[in-house]
């Protein structure tokens, strides 16, 4: 039974952390019922709905199975970079475990906040794994180990950094959606999170263009008979990556639509848990399952399937060598401009030096 309290300002929050969404409406503090449930419009509500214990347990079990499978495959295929995907599956699993606990203790704000943050950020790990996989496909299958003159290792590095930026933006926005923050902070957090999600989708679109370029290059090389006949399976990996990115994009579009209309009760999406399961949890489950079935480690076989690994001492030596060669190259250009007689030989030396520098750079591992 609810007891009326003096009017208070309510806070608009994220889809599972809402009491009400109007900054001028009043609310009441309700007496918690079974499992701590109170109506979503109550001041002491941490959820916009009554979370389903059964659904949370179901997806906890499903993600736990995928997690165990990926841990096994990481050791079986001996692919260290799969720790990124394992982290993503772990976050998905933890999100639904805390949701299940929160469904039984709905007055515990920590369960609601942790579950929501993990759910919002976990897909970024899977996204990063796709970036890391394409870089290795280029390095292993493409004769030049490059796409558009960019090395596969560099593509991985650049896009992982893009993913980190998106992660930080979304994390900042998600943390601002806590019920303990004021209404304006939560509104800003919603906008920041949407910006981070939009940024993630932009990076995916650019990345997809590079995947298409890789596919076209490989098909052309095969038609000319210039590809490595002993290395097959790139098509399965690429098509699988397409499917994974489509599923991740489905989840992103869902979140953009959900939050673009705000968290007002007139928007049914944040107030019905089924939307989240159908358009967030299920697509991510399928994406990770596809990576189990067509695991990159099945196709990336052998020492050349990984980027060259150098010791810290070797990396420092190569960096010093690279710096010295750049200095010498710059000095040769200056001498060439002075029109000295030996300029021709120095120019030739410059070309030779440039070739040595590029070969040394190729050994660098990112």
Automatic annotation (TrEMBL):
Membrane topology note: Multi-pass membrane protein
Biased composition (Basic and acidic residues): 356-366
Subcellular compartments: Membrane
Biased composition annotated in UniProt, kind: Basic residues: 312-328
Keywords: Membrane, Transmembrane, Transmembrane helix
Predominant cellular place of this UniProt entry's protein: membrane
InterPro entries: RTA1
Pfam family, one: RTA1
Region (Disordered): 310-366
Domain of life: Eukaryota
PANTHER family, sorted: LIPID TRANSPORTER ATNI-RELATED (PTHR31465:SF15), PROTEIN RTA1-RELATED (PTHR31465)
Identification of the protein by name: RTA1-domain-containing protein
Record organism: Zopfia rhizophila CBS 207.26
């Amino acid at each position: 039974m609810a007891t009326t309290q003096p009017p208070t300002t309510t806070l608009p929050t994220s889809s599972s952390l809402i009491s009400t969404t109007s900054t001028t409406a009043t609310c009441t503090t309700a007496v918690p019922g079974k499992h701590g449930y109170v109506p979503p419009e109550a001041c002491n509500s941490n959820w916009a709905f009554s979370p389903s214990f059964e659904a949370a347990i179901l997806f906890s079990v499903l993600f736990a199975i995928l997690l165990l499978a990926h841990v096994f495959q990481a050791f079986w295929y001996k692919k260290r970079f799969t720790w990124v995907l394992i982290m993503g599956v772990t976050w998905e699993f933890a999100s639904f475990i805390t949701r299940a606990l929160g469904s039984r203790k709905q007055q515990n704000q920590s369960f609601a906040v942790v579950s929501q943050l993990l759910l919002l950020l976990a897909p970024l790990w899977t996204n990063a794994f796709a970036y890391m996989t394409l870089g290795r496909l280029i390095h292993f299958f493409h004769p030049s180990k490059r796409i558009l003159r960019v090395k596969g290792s560099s593509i991985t590095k650049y896009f992982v950094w893009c993913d980190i930026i998106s992660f930080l933006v979304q994390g900042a926005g998600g943390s601002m959606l806590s019920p303990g923050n004021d209404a304006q902070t939560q509104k800003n957090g919603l906008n920041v999170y949407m910006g981070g999600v939009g940024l993630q989708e932009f990076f995916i679109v650019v990345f997809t263009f590079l995947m298409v370029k890789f596919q076209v290059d490989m098909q052309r090389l095969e038609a000319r008979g210039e590809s490595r006949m002993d290395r097959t399976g790139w098509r399965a990996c690429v098509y699988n990556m397409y499917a994974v990115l489509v599923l991740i994009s489905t989840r992103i579009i869902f979140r953009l639509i959900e939050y673009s209309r705000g968290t007002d009760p007139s928007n049914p999406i944040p107030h019905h848990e089924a939307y989240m399961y159908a358009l967030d949890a299920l697509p991510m489950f399928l994406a990770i399952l596809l990576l189990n079935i067509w695991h990159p480690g099945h196709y990336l076989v052998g020492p050349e399937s990984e980027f060259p690994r150098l010791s810290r001492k070797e990396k420092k030596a190569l960096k010093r060598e690279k710096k010295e060669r750049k200095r010498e190259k710059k000095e040769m250009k200056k001498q060439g401009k002075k029109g000295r007689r030996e300029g021709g030989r120095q120019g030739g030396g410059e070309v030779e030096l440039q070739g040595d520098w590029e070969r040394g750079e190729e050994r660098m591992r990112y």
